[in-house]
Amino acid sequence: MRLLPVGSPTHTACPKSTETLVGLRQGQVRDALSSPDFVEANGSWVYFFTSPVPEGQRGGGFPVLIFTFDRNALVMEVSCYYDR
User: Fold this and answer.
1) Topology given in CATH for the domain delimited by 19-82
2) Of 21, 60, 73, 76, which residue is most buried, by most CB within 10 angstroms?
3) Does the model's pTM come out above 0.85?
4) What's the Cα-to-Cα distance from 41 to each of 6, 45, 63, 67, rounded to whole Å?
5) What pLDDT tens digit does each residue of the chain (84 aa) get?
């Protein structure tokens, strides 16, 4: 999605279940989704699932997926919410 042309419509949703993502290695997440859009102070990786927003326009209403890792770099929690 992030490689789509600016302003392209997307129809993404938070996953109904994130259980299958728990236990993945940090490298597996990076390989599948590329580098995170943001890294939180606690080391969690944040991904914004939207196409690039046109300059001067505000985004919102798209899924934000957050991966929290344990000390062994394994996913221990995944959360998703819709940004506004």
Assistant:
1) Beta-lactamase Inhibitory Protein; Chain:B, domain 1 (3.30.1450)
2) 21
3) no
4) 29, 10, 20, 13
5) 556 666 666 677 888 899 999 999 999 999 999 999 999 999 999 998 875 555 666 656 788 999 999 999 999 999 998 876
Q: Which two tokens stand for residue 2?
A: 């992030």
Number of CB atoms found within 10 A of residue 65's CB: 22
Any alpha helices (H) in 13-56, and if so which ranges? Answer: 26-33
Residue 68 near residue 77, CB atoms below 8 Å = yes
Domain boundaries, the chain: 19-82
